[in-house]
Amino acid sequence: MQSKQVEVRSSVKRNAITLTFVGLVGIILGLVLFLSSSVLFAPALCAFALGIIATVLGVSKQMEPEVSITLSPDGLSYHHRRGSLFIEWENVQRFDIPKSLDGLETIELPFIGIRLKKINPVLDVIPGRLATGLLTEQRPLLMSAVTLDENLEVLEDYLNSEFTPLLVNGERYRGVLAMYGHRSEMLNRNLGYHQYIPFDCLDREPREFLTLLRDYLQEVRESA
């Protein structure tokens, strides 16, 4: 029996329309107050500024994809506003919540980590725009990895190699794909995973999502 496709809807889009509407109301209110009296300049400026912020946040939320993750018999698809990334089940070694150090305390990072058997299949299909966006969004992960290593020379070596071509499993990558490959390999060495899905892309608790992943993968393997 073939497993059914499962769609996970991102929590990021929640209240997007409401936030945009409130922002537009704030902008209009600010303009009305500003034109009404110079005495109301301060509250007008405040309403206008808050309206701009709310509108930008609301529009940004609406730009996010309705479905953030799709599970199919072939693999997992991660949908981002810059594109989609497909990971085959046969290339997944394990997944869990990555951990880092905060002083002497071990803390869980707000991501679902996916460790791959090979990075090549991902580099072969990831859109350049998505790779560029993830490189920017994963900067906190990079700092967490450095914190775990506690060796600035490792960070220096990584930063020096980030812009060089990447040769992995006999294949050579250049440009943004090489940068993303270097980043993925570095995060895997330090945090234990190549790919990271933020918690705010989920529609349930992270532990529940991990259970869903494991149950779905087991079902796929049993039906193969």
* Arrangement of strands in the largest sheet: 1-2-3-4
State the helical fraction.
40-55%
How would you state the average pLDDT, rounded? 85
Order of helix and strand elements from N to C terminus: EHHEEEEEEEHHHHEEHEH
Cα-atom radius of gyration = 22 Å
Biggest beta-sheet profile: 4 strands, antiparallel
Walk me through this protein's architecture.
This protein is of the alpha+beta class. The chain is 52% helix and 23% strand. It has 8 helices and 11 strands. The strands form 4 sheets. A 4-stranded antiparallel beta sheet has the order 1-2-3-4. A hairpin with a 2-residue loop joins strand 3 and strand 4 (83-88). The radius of gyration is 22 Å and the shape is globular.
What is the gist of this entry?
With 224 residues, this protein is an alpha+beta fold. It contains 8 helices and 11 strands. It has helices at 16-36, 41-63, 120-125, 128-137, 139-149, 152-161, 175-191, 206-223; strands at 6-9, 67-72, 75-80, 83-88, 92-96, 99-102, 105-108, 111-116, 166-168, 171-173, 195-198.
